[in-house]
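User: Can you model how pyridoxal-5'-phosphate sits in this protein?
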Amino acid sequence: MTRPWNFSAGPSALPLEVLEQAAREMTNWQGSGMSVMEMSHRGKHFTQIRDEAVADLRELLHVPENFEILFMQGGATAENAIVPMNLINRNQSGKADYVLSGIWSNKSWKEAQRYGDIHIAGSSGEASVVAGREQAPWTWFPAPHTWNLRTDAAYLHFCANETIGGVEFMEWPDMAALGAPDVPLVVDVSSNFLSRSIDFSKVGMVYAGAQKNAGPAGVTVVVVRKDLIGHALPVCPSAFDYANVAEAGSMFNTPPTYAIYIAGLVFKWLKRQGGIQAIEAENIRKAEALYGFLDTSDFYVSTVHPSVRSRMNVPFFLKNESLNAEFLAQAESRGLLQLKGHKSVGGMRASIYNAVPFEGVQALISFLQEFERQHG
Ligand SMILES: *Cc1c(COP(=O)(O)O)cnc(C)c1O
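Assistant: Here's the modeled complex, given as structure tokens:
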């Protein structure tokens, strides 16, 4: 039987090649006689796994040498606290600005309030007319020129891809051009990490829980500019102080070794696909095919503004919502899994991360067409 296509938002599909390699190496990693799960994190085997993962990630994303690559724990949710604890005092201002564009950025903003003077720089939390189109709250992204910035903020935070709402912020701003040259961008890239290139000249830090597009749950990737490290609040737990984690090569305490190993296999798989440019082109092709179909249909609707439609997470609705249960049951019987939308949004959501190939998107589109023919 062929493997079903998995459209889960996270934890989500991993490349089959990666899973098969992990299976082959499960009980005996490269002749070591041990599973990766059974190795000392400080031994030569795991040290090699960690070093290759860091080097491959640096190569894939062209991460400059003045940035540290850290593997941490606690997911992006813990980073919502770890970020302000580490950064908000870097210039003694105790201030940070947040842009709100959906559920994840709202959670970040809420958590940060425990650590300093937190201000909303922009929000899509109200209905708005965007380029002539009426948009409901959280279906658009506030344009950078409208942001209300504080030039002495320690950083500006936004979420690059709202996994639940399906809103992806495509053009990250140059803060100097916005009159705030000393405010570094801090970006939650959990759900579009490794789907596209990142211009690190514009960024102070990015972070991602791995389980969306980079690996299994349990490891958080942090890429942070070195000059932002070393200013943690006294209250910051030692294990969450970027200075300690960087100094110890992500081994201040026992790291999530197996999750790092699998993420490392995903990085090698990406290199074999031709790197980030190649996978980004493929992701554009997939998203264009799916949104292109939705736009021609009167049976399904996509509500996110076209300028910020996520390439990774595609929420859509059946106009006749009484058909939802039947739609999901039929999809599952066709081997199209986990298409149910998040409970806060409803409808459907197809997450088409790196590990879902064009063929999987085509299978989904064929099913959408057929279901529409049956019920339209
Ligand atoms: C999933 C997700 C989170 C939360 O990640 P956890 O690993 O569950 O803490 C935060 N931000 C974004 C954009 C996400 O997609």
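A couple of observations from the model: The chain has two domains: 18-272, 276-375. The mean pLDDT is 97.
User: Helpful, thanks.
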